[in-house]
Design brief:
Elements (H helix, E strand, L loop, with lengths): L2 H10 L3 E5 L19 H10 L4 E5 L5 E6 L9 H4 L4 E4 L5 E6 L9 E3 L2 E4 L3 E4 L11 E2 L13 E2 L2 H4 L5
Parallel strand pairs: 5-10
Antiparallel strand pairs: 1-2, 2-8, 3-5, 3-7, 4-5, 4-9, 6-7
Helix pairs in contact: 1-2
Length: 165
């Protein structure tokens, strides 16, 4: 699949996408988080202009959050086994993104400890984006090219209740 095909598949899932600079995690100039969309014509235009662009998913507007486990910063990959099973991606930096559904208006804590960040009001890079390390992001349990609907669990209570602490 091409990047444009991936982006369109994500938009069909109801996820808002944005183009990222090739080999980078930053949005293409002028196409930041506030421009994320499901609009097919806009997505096609972006990826015609830059076919090698990466893809970001705007989390909160898509009803999602991600637990970003980064072992380079002390994150324990074993945390995956202690969290509810959900859509999971390997990041290009050797970590994991655990993606959860989040109810509208939910507020989440920013971290679960060293090397484990909660992403909600931003975006994450997704397959087939190229990480600055030269490795690609990839889903471990989801194949967009087959028209699958990913299995995304509801965010666990400890993420939703964390701001009360």
């Amino acid at each position: 699949m091409t990047a444009i095909e991936y982006a369109l598949a994500y938009a069909k899932l109801g996820w808002l996408v944005l183009p990222l600079k090739p080999g980078d995690k930053r949005p293409l100039a002028g196409q930041g988080l506030k421009h994320a969309t499901r609009d097919e014509a806009t997505i096609k235009r972006w990826f015609k202009r830059c076919p090698d662009a990466g893809i970001g998913i705007a989390l909160a507007p898509s009803g999602l959050a991600a637990v970003d486990i980064d072992p380079r910063n002390g994150g324990d990959l074993g945390l995956r086994d202690r969290m509810p099973a959900t859509l999971t991606a390997a990041t290009g930096g050797g970590g994991l993104h655990l993606v959860y559904r989040v109810p509208p208006g939910a507020s989440l804590r920013s971290s679960l400890g060293p090397g484990v960040d909660i992403k909600h009001h931003g975006y994450i890079a997704v397959e087939p984006s190229l990480h600055p390390s030269g490795k690609r992001y990839n889903w471990q349990d989801f194949e967009p090219s087959e028209g699958e609907t990913p299995q995304v669990a509801d965010a666990p209570a400890e993420l939703l209740a964390a701001n009360a602490a």
